[in-house]
Amino acid sequence: MASLTDLALGLFTLYLVPRLPRDVDGARYWRAAFVWAAITALVGAVYHGFLVDLPRIGGITWAVMSTMVVVVMSFMLAASVIQVLGRSRAVVFWPLRLLGVIAYLVFAATGNSSITAIMMCESITMACVIGLWVWAWLRGRPAGRPMLVAIGVSIAAAMLRLIPGAAALVALDPDSAYHIGQIVGMVLLYRAVAQSGPPPEAVDGTGSGRASGPDEPSPSPADGRHRPARWIPARWIKVPQVRRHGS
């Protein structure tokens, strides 16, 4: 069951990849996150179906899958930063991202790769992603609320695997319940990305991403631009004379 649900998660996520919008800022990072998530799930289907009883190979496969989850989180952070704050501020978050990746690689190299290790190492990354979209939601960005709902569903799905007995409430084993919850989370994430608004640089500006200054010409219906108004001397203006009756 765990293998089949992981396979469904991988195939469904792969189905969503070409349908992601290309006109949002950070689109390539969202696409990369979905691709890596799909590949991770497909590798997981092989692991649960054929390698789980092979301790040596299964342990290596699990470490590789866990590292791929960290890569997915990296792309999610990159897409969120670019979409919410703009490309010019993306560099601020990369040191935090690097710390999380290095910490998890240490866990994986020492044979301690697990969902708990991922949650520990990726807590800073997830906090950054949630904080960014809370900030976007409070400022009225279209994708803010849907993105927070999608992230919340994914976290709830992870809890089905981490909390003992939680998966029994839905009559499934922890792995299968987690995979099905992630399918719902990926659908909601896809819809949130599809509802994303324009890049932050273009919200208050023109198509080039900057606002028109006071010295810049404004568009006109004729050719898209018109020259600034010039002062015309009063003596150049001819006012028609009105003739009175009887004069």
Based on CA inertia axes, which overall geometry fits?
Answer: globular
Structural class: mainly alpha
Largest sheet: none
Radius of gyration: 27 Å
Transmembrane segments: 29-51, 57-79, 91-109, 115-136, 148-170
Keywords: Membrane, Transmembrane, Transmembrane helix
Pfam families: DUF6962
Organism: Pseudonocardia benzenivorans
Describe this structure in words.
The structure is a single chain. The protein has eight helices and no strands. With 247 residues, the protein is mostly helical. The protein is globular, with a radius of gyration of 27 Å. The model is unreliable at 200-237 (pLDDT under 50). Helix content is 61%, strand content 0%. The protein has helices spanning 2-16, 27-51, 55-85, 94-109, 115-121, 123-138, 144-162, 174-194. Helix 1 (2-16) packs parallel to helix 8, helix 3 (55-85) packs antiparallel against helix 4 and helix 3 runs parallel beside helix 6.
In short:
This protein has about 250 residues and is mainly α. Helix content is about 60%, strand content about 0%. The radius of gyration is 27 Å and the shape is globular.
Write the layout of secondary structure elements.
Layout: H1 2-16, H2 27-51, H3 55-85, H4 94-109, H5 115-121, H6 123-138, H7 144-162, H8 174-194
Helix pairs in contact: 1-2, 1-8, 2-3, 3-4, 3-6, 6-7, 7-8
